[in-house]
Design a protein that fits this description.
The chain has two domains: about 1-85 and about 140-185, 2-Layer Sandwich (Phosphorylase Kinase, domain 1); about 90-140 and about 185-380, Transferase(Phosphotransferase), domain 1, CATH 1.10.510. It is an alpha+beta fold and about 375 residues long. The chain starts with a strand and ends with a helix. It has helices at about 50-55, 90-95, 105-120, 150-155, 230-235, 240-255, 270-280, 285-290, 315-325, 335-350, 360-365, 365-380, and strands at about 5, 10-20, 20-30, 35-40, 70-75, 80-85, 90, 135-140, 160, 180, 200. The strands form three sheets. Strands 1-2-3-4-6-5 form a six-stranded antiparallel beta sheet, with no helix packed on it. A three-stranded antiparallel beta sheet has the order 7-8-11. A two-stranded antiparallel ribbon has the order 9-10. It is globular, with a radius of gyration of 22 Å. It is about 35% helix and about 15% strand.
């Protein structure tokens, strides 16, 4: 609850977010007089992240947050593993809701994200869960100078909702009396400057080292819309770095236009596959033959059936999902840059994982070299 002090030093100030495996709180470290993000894992669940984060720690690659402190918390649900890191503004999904980043910001964010993934891969790890909610943005340097009172003045008091039993009975001891609504510390996408594009890659709960451990494709937990197709069609095959490449492509696409290239809104897993085939072309023959539901979407010649919505090919999808929204605001990509982006997306969104480029190949692509990385360099010079 707000005001609780954990581990004798961390005063809970507000909630930052939550997921299936943890809740993240904004806390004031009363010993060092600075704010931290305090991650509380679910009871009795191992937090593998800290070991991986420490293995990735490198002052020269500050897009990955190193744990500051680790401790255990005992409560009515059991023992929770906890750790602290520097806090962040919030994630790119929250920033981008119904809004578009300026062109120069999309380039810098995409370049920074790709460099972060390149660093992770160079250290022998796969992130395994790349999407906008796991990409955070660094807070301004003056944040730690705010008192709790001034923080509440700027961002508002913590918002809570009372929890009650439907039958009116008293709450059991393992349920809190109030739920805290997460606070957003960031800004809207259209208000981002290039100086706001210092990303912090988050949530390494699905990360693994493919050279040291086998992670089967069926155990991929990336959200469906970003999940690589081998998770569906080669469930027993080991996942590797190429899985990140597919998810990186879908995430960059969303940064550019704030609409996913493939959508799971009101769509089944098979409908998602049909979108991918419509946009990218026919599946590898072995996958195609082992997809019994294909007859719902395609005829015997592999052509879309006439009685369904056909997803646009990738070139038209870029025009419809990215350019048209930007044209309304007078900030669309130029023809040469758009061609370079589409070429990169086609190379990354290849069905066979072994045919996808490495992240180093991506960094050498025309769009990265000519647009994204130069913008990222300019953004670092303005910070």
């Amino acid at each position: 609850m707000i005001g609780d002090v954990l581990h004798g030093r961390y005063r809970i100030v507000d909630k930052l977010g939550f997921g299936g495996y943890s809740t993240v709180w904004l806390a004031l470290d009363t010993c060092l007089h600075r704010y931290v993000a305090l991650k509380v894992g679910t009871a009795e669940a191992p937090l593998r992240e800290t070991k991986i984060l420490r293995a990735l720690a490198n002052p020269g690659h500050d897009s990955i947050r190193t744990p500051l402190d680790e401790f255990e918390l005992s409560g009515p649900n059991g023992t929770h593993l906890c750790y602290t890191t520097i806090p962040a503004q919030g994630n790119l999904r929250e920033a981008s809701f119904s809004r578009l980043f300026p062109l120069e910001v999309t380039r810098a964010l995409s370049g920074g994200l790709t460099l972060a993934i390149a660093y992770i891969h160079s250290r022998g790890y796969v992130h395994g869960d790349i999407h906008l909610r796991n990409i955070l943005v660094k807070l301004s340097s003056d944040f730690d100078h705010l008192s709790v009172e001034k923080l509440y003045e700027r961002y508002g008091e913590p918002e809570t909702v009372s929890i009650t039993e439907r039958d009116g009975k008293p709450l059991p001891p393992n349920v809190p009396s109030k739920e805290v609504v997460p606070l957003y510390l960031g800004k809207n996408a259209e208000d981002f400057l290039v100086s706001d594009t210092h990303i912090l890659l988050s949530d390494f709960g699905e990360a693994f080292a493919p050279d040291l451990e086998i992670r089967h494709s069926k155990d991929c937990h990336t959200p469906f819309a970003m999940r690589p197709p081998e998770a569906r069609f080669e469930p027993e095959a080991p996942l590797s770095y190429s899985a990140d490449i597919w998810s990186l492509a879908t995430t960059i696409w969303e940064i550019l236009g704030m609409q996913p290239i493939f959508s799971t809104d009101f769509a089944s897993a098979d409908e998602l596959v049909s979108q991918q085939v419509d946009a990218l072309g026919i599946l590898p023959s072995s996958w195609w033959m082992h997809w019994p539901e294909r007859s719902q979407f395609f005829d015997n010649n592999g052509l879309p059936k006439e009685d369904r919505h056909v997803w646009p090919v990738i070139e038209l999808a870029f025009e419809d999902f990215v350019q048209k929204s930007r044209q309304k605001r007078g900030c669309e990509f130029g023809r040469e840059e758009a061609t370079a982006i589409i070429d990169l997306m086609r190379r990354m969104l290849v069905f066979r994982p072994e045919e996808r480029p490495t992240v180093e190949d991506i960094l050498q692509s025309q769009w990265m070299v000519k647009w994204a990385l130069p913008e990222l360099k300019r953004s670092s010079q303005t910070k």
